Amino acid sequence: MKAIIFDLDGVICSTDHYHYLAWKSLADDLNIPFDEKDNERLRGVSRMESLDIILEKSKENYSLKEKEQFADRKK
To answer: What is the pLDDT of residue 10?
Structure first.
């Protein structure tokens, strides 16, 4: 092997739109409003922190186990 390329911040390939679509799908399933402006708050944030931001708009209280299941659904 002569080289390894890491693209952790989207320099080579931007995946922002796909992350938005994945979070939007989960939010829609949970009947939580989520748009591109909401998605901006998720930049540079971990998966679980992102989920907590999304769940701020929910009227439901979710257990840690439920949150972990939601996070696992976001692929």
So the answer is: 65
Query: Which listed residue (7, 16, 29, 35) is catalytic?
Result: 7
pLDDT at 66: 97
Whole-angstrom Cα distance, residue 51 to residue 30?
12
Q: How far apart are CA 75 and CA 71, in angstroms?
A: 8
Q: Are 67 and 55 in contact (CB under 8 A)?
A: yes
Is 52 catalytic? The answer is no
For residue 65, the one-letter residue type is K
Look up the pTM and report it: 0.81
- Active-site residue, 9 included: yes
pLDDT band at 9 (very low <50, low <70, confident <90, very high): low
